[in-house]
Amino acid sequence: MQSLKLKPGEFLSPEKFVLEGFEDLEISTQIVLRDALNRGLEVEILDRKNHFLRLKNQNGLVQYVKEASKTALDSYITFLVMENKTISKIIMYEYNLQVPAGDSFIDSESALFFWQKNLDRKMVVKPVTTNFGIGISVLPPRTSEEDAKKAIKIAFNHSESIIVEEFAEGNEYRFLVIGEETVAVCNRIPANVTGDGIHTIQDLVSFKNEDPRRGVGHVTPLEKIQLGDTELDVLQQSGFTKDFIPAKDQKVFLRKNSNISTGGDSMDVTDLAHPYYKELAVKAAKSVGAKICGVDIILQDLEKREIIEY
């Protein structure tokens, strides 16, 4: 076990996004570690591999933190509810929160039949219990049955049950809720490159990955963009290959999901968010009993309140 506490006058600058000596920890855990030390707390790393910390103040008050956001403030059942997309959707719908129309399935045949009934719509196929955009596929309207079966198989490879639902059009925003307040909002943009009229997509990916903020294993603010099967499939659907040379300022997307963990970009838009959406995020967090969580909301315009009919 490693115990840490800053000496009087010491301060760890947040400008250095990677905490020296703790590069193996998830970036979110590094941030908690830095901020706790800067607030004068003693930090004990109980389990480095599992990102498990114990925080102590001068009065002896103790708080355990796992993976930056799992604390005693949230119950275990709250964590299980948030982990299960099917249950989360049911509860949020009951709280009059808009969720994509769809259903969950435990066998491929039923999932495929549901997709066939919605063939003319853009659909999403995803595992019930994964994070980081793992196992998620987006199917355009009237996609081939072969592609639909492939998407369903991929989802089932990661979970015993899957969800097939309508694709929500718009921009994706992650609202960080702590207690009764939305403290931050970021715009999450799928992995992409911008052309210069000279270099191939593969070259542009390499250039973008040189950004020191990009790494692997969630230990840096952003993840490196990959050129695996998923990215190549997305390029193919757009009529491109990795050797295509985009025109100057032409933006090419390599992913349909916007997760930072799959190479997406993140922009701080906290000050732009309409107060209504910040309140909506808090309502969503409360619906599942969460005190600390991220709430994803798809919106056409973050700055203007949309009139939503339920």
What does this structure look like?
- With 310 residues, the protein is of the alpha+beta class.
- Among the domains are: 2-72, no CATH class; 101-167, Dna Ligase, domain 1 (2-Layer Sandwich).
- It has 8 helices and 16 strands.
- The protein has helices at 27-38, 76-83, 85-94, 108-117, 145-156, 201-209, 229-237, 275-287; strands spanning 2-4, 42-47, 52-56, 62-66, 102-105, 123-127, 137-139, 162-166, 171-178, 181-189, 192-194, 214-215, 222-223, 251-253, 265-268, 292-299.
- It has a 4-stranded antiparallel sheet with strand order 1-2-3-4, with helices on one face. A 4-stranded antiparallel sheet has the order 5-8-6-7, covered by helices on one side.
- A hairpin with a 5-residue loop joins strand 3 (52-56) and strand 4 (62-66).
- The longest helix has 13 residues, at 275-287.
- The chain is globular.
- The protein starts with a strand and ends in an 11-residue tail after the last strand.
- Cα radius of gyration in angstroms: 21 Å
Query: Shape, please?
Result: globular
Helical amount: 25-40%
Number of extended strands: 16
Question: Pairing-aware structural class of the strands and helices?
Answer: alpha+beta
CA-CA gap between termini: 52 Å
Average pLDDT score: 92
Question: DSSP strand (E) fraction?
Answer: 15-25%
> What are the low-pLDDT stretches, counting only 5+ consecutive residues below 50?
none
Give the SSE order as H and E letters: EHEEEHHEHEEHEEEEHEEHEEHE
Number of helices: 8
Largest sheet: 4 strands, antiparallel
Strand order of the largest sheet: 1-2-3-4
- Give the oligomeric state: single chain
